[in-house]
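Lesson 9: reading folded outputs for more than one chain in a single document. The general rule is that every protein is listed as its sequence immediately followed by its C-alpha cells, and records are never interleaved. Here is the first one.
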Amino acid sequence: MSRYLLQFSYDGGFFHGFQIQQNAISVQSELEKALSTIAGISVDLVGSSRTDTGVHAREQFAHFDIFEEANQPKVDWVYRLNRILPASLAIQAVYQVPDDFHARFDATGRTYEYRISQSKDPFSSEYAYWFEAPLNLDAMNQAAQIFLNHRDFQSFSKVKTDVTTFDCQISRAEWKKEGNLLIFTIQGNRFLRGMVRAVVGTMIEIGLGKWDQADLIRILDAKDRKQAGRAVPAHGLHLIEVAYPEITFVSKCSS
C-alpha cells in the first residue's frame, strides 16, 4: 500500500460541500469517482477540511491509499485527473506521503478569507458578499484581536456538530480594504463548523456600531450560538491555505 496526497482547488458554487452526501454532487464524490476510474479500483479520500455548500477553496488537500492491484500514479497523473474532473475542480499536484500521514489531523494550520464587496459587481457576485452599508474597519480590526487570546469558540459553532472540543487557537485575524473589497483573513490550527461565517456576521454588527468589543467578549463567554451574529452567505468564504510540516511530503509525483 502507498499513501498519496492530492492538492486541489474548487469553485464551491458547483458543489454541495466537500463531504459526500446522498443525492448531491460533492467535491469528495467527484474526486473519488475520477481517482477510481484511473486506479481501476475503488478509492476513498480523507480531506483536510470539510467545507460547507458554496464555500470555495484555493488550496485544499486530501489523502488516499493505492494498493498493489491498482494502477500506480504515472507522470501524467494530474493531467489525467484534470481531463476527467469538471471545470470547477482542478488538481495542482500529487505527493507521496508516509503511510501514517493523515490529511486532517496532521495539518498544523488553516487560513480562510471572507470577502465583502461594497458595491454591486457582476464579476465578483459569486465570490464576495455584496454588503453596501458603511463599516468601521478600525473597530472591526480592534475587535478581531480579541480572538487571538481566546480558546473556546462554542458561540460561533453550528449547534449540531460531533466535535469533542470547541477549542481553537487563532494566530491571525485582520481586515483590509482592497478597492471595493473588504477582506477578512483568519488563521488558526482548526475551525468549527460554520465558525468563520458566524465570526464575520458578528464583526459586521461591530462595524455597523451595533455592538462593541465588550459585546464580543460577552458573546464568547456565553458559549451560546444564539448570542452571536448571523452567519454570512457561504459564497464569500474561501479556504486559501492548509499548512503541514515540511517532512510530510516524501516526494512529488506530478504537478
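And here is the second record, again sequence then C-alpha cells.
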Amino acid sequence: MTNKEVVRAMYDEFFNAHDISAAEKYVKEDYIQHNPGVGQGRAALMEGFAKKFEMEPTFHLEIKMMIEEDDKVAVYLKNVDPEGNTKARVVDIYRLEDGKLAEHWDVLMPV
C-alpha cells in the first residue's frame, strides 16, 4: 500500500466504521500525537476515540483532498453530520514509517 492508501484505509476503517482495532494495522505503537487533546501512542488514540464514538455514534469524516510527499500525507476533510452538514473542517498531516502512521499534526476549524 502507498502511504496515501494507508491513510485512506485508516479513515475508512477506524474513523468512519468506528473499528478501533484497525489502529493496530495502521498506527505504530509509539505514535507521536501533536494534538494536545489526544494522548501519546496507539493505545491512547484507541482509547480516546472509543470514548468519542460512544459519545458521538454518528461521527463521520469526509475526505475532500489528499496530498502525498515523501513520508508525509496531508488530508483535507470535513466532519459531517448524518444529513451531510459540515460540523468542522480539518487538515490532518501524518508522517508514516514502515507503512504505518508514526506522527500526527492537525488544524481544526469548527463551522
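What the second record shows: The chain is about 30% helix and 45% strand.
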